[in-house]
Design a protein that fits this description.
The protein is mostly helical and 320 residues long. It contains 16 helices and no strands.
C-alpha cells in the first residue's frame, strides 16, 4: 500500500501538478489512515515527497518549471529529454530513503473497515478526464502550433467550467463540485506570493541579482545553482525564487535545469519552500494530524539532501 500510494501520487503529479496532488490526495490519505487505524505520517511524507520530485519530469509539473523553462524558450520535448533521467534518479533515491526511515511503522498491520463507494456521476468523470487528456496533448505540441501553454490551460479550464454549469442546469441542480472547488482554492497564499514577488523585483532593480551572478561565478554551475536555488527557495518560496533566478544574466542551460531541480526538491526542506508545503501543513492541521515545523525539517533533511545530490550528479553528466 505504501508503494501504491507513492506511485499513484507520483504518476498523478507527472501528468497534472504537484500542487493539485497535494490539495486533493492528502485528505484522501488522512481518511484512509484513520479508517485503517495506522500511522499516517509515512504515507503523507511519501505523497508529499513524490509529488515534489516527479513534478520535475514534465514542464507542466510545477509553475517554477514553466517560468524558468519558458524564460529561456525551452519547449516541452526539449525539457523532457533533459529532465527525465535526473527525475528518475531522484525518485529511486528517495523511495529507498523513505523505506529506510519508515520501515518500522510500515510493518504494523492494518485494521481496515471496508466501505463501498460508487462514483456519483460517470459523465462528470469522463468529461473531466477528457479535458485533462486534451490539455496534455496540446501542451506537448504547444511549441509546434505556436500556442502559449497558459492559454491552452485557460481554455480547457473554462471549457470544463462551462460543461459543469450546463450539466447542472440540465439536471436542475446547483454546481456543487464547481462551488466546492472554488471554496477550496488557497486564497490566503495569494498575498504571500505577491509580497515575495515585490521583494524579488526590488532586488533586481537594486542590482542584487547581477551581484549574485558574480558571487556564484563560473565552473560547476550545475551544483552551485542547484544547491543555491534549493536554499533560496526556503527563504523566499520557490516561485519568487524562480523569478529571481530567471533574471540572473548569462545563465547556462545546465545552471537553468539545476535551478529547476532546486525549486522542486527545495519544497522538502521547510514548509516555506513551496506553496505545496504551506498547503500540506494547512491540510494536516485541518485533519488534526500533528506535524510540526521541526518534523518537516527532520524528514526534509534526511530525504532532500541525498536526493538533490543524486539528481544534480545525473544532470551534470547530461550537460557536460
Amino acid at each position: 500500500m505504501f508503494f501504491f500510494l507513492y506511485l499513484f501520487a507520483s504518476v498523478l503529479t507527472v501528468f497534472t501538478s504537484n500542487d493539485i496532488v497535494i490539495l486533493t490526495f492528502i485528505p484522501f490519505i488522512c481518511y484512509f489512515c484513520k479508517n485503517a487505524n495506522i500511522n499516517p505520517i509515512p504515507y503523507l511524507v511519501a505523497c508529499f515527497v513524490g509529488a515534489n520530485t516527479w513534478s520535475m519530469m514534465l514542464i507542466i509539473g510545477n509553475p517554477t518549471n514553466i517560468y524558468l523553462a519558458t524564460s529561456y524558450h525551452i519547449d516541452f520535448i526539449s525539457y523532457l529529454e533533459v529532465m527525465a533521467l535526473p527525475t528518475l534518479m531522484a525518485g529511486v533515491v528517495e523511495i529507498v530513503l523513505l523505506l529506510l526511515i519508515f520501515h518500522r511503522p510500515l510493518k504494523k498491520s492494518m485494521d481496515v473497515n471496508e466501505e463501498e463507494y460508487h462514483i456519483q456521476s460517470k459523465f462528470d468523470l469522463i468529461v473531466g478526464v477528457s479535458h485533462l487528456v486534451i490539455c496534455l496533448i496540446f501542451l506537448v505540441i504547444s511549441s509546434y502550433i505556436h500556442l502559449e501553454m497558459y492559454l491552452i490551460s485557460l481554455i480547457c479550464a473554462l471549457s470544463l467550467i462551462a460543461f459543469n454549469l450546463v450539466s447542472s442546469l440540465v439536471q436542475r441542480q446547483k454546481p456543487h463540485d464547481l462551488l466546492m472547488t472554488i471554496r477550496r482554492l488557497p486564497y490566503e497564499l495569494i498575498f504571500f506570493v505577491l509580497s515575495m514577488f515585490v521583494i524579488v523585483e526590488g532586488l533586481r532593480i537594486s542590482g542584487v541579482t547581477e551581484e549574485f551572478y558574480y558571487f556564484l561565478g563560473t565552473g560547476l554551475e550545475v551544483y552551485k545553482y542547484g544547491y543555491s536555488s534549493f536554499l533560496v527557495c526556503n527563504l523566499i518560496n520557490n516561485i519568487p525564487m524562480s523569478v529571481f533566478y530567471a533574471n540572473i544574466p548569462n545563465m547556462t542551460l545546465g545552471a537553468l535545469y539545476a535551478s529547476i531541480i532546486g525549486s522542486n526538491l527545495g519544497a522538502f526542506l521547510t514548509p516555506i519552500g513551496a506553496l505545496a508545503g504551506i498547503m500540506f501543513t494547512n491540510l494536516l492541521s485541518k485533519q488534526n494530524i500533528r506535524y510540526s515545523f521541526l518534523d518537516f525539517i527532520k524528514y526534509g533533511v534526511l530525504v532532500s539532501l541525498p536526493t538533490i545530490t543524486a539528481s544534480l550528479f545525473v544532470l551534470s553528466l547530461l550537460v557536460s
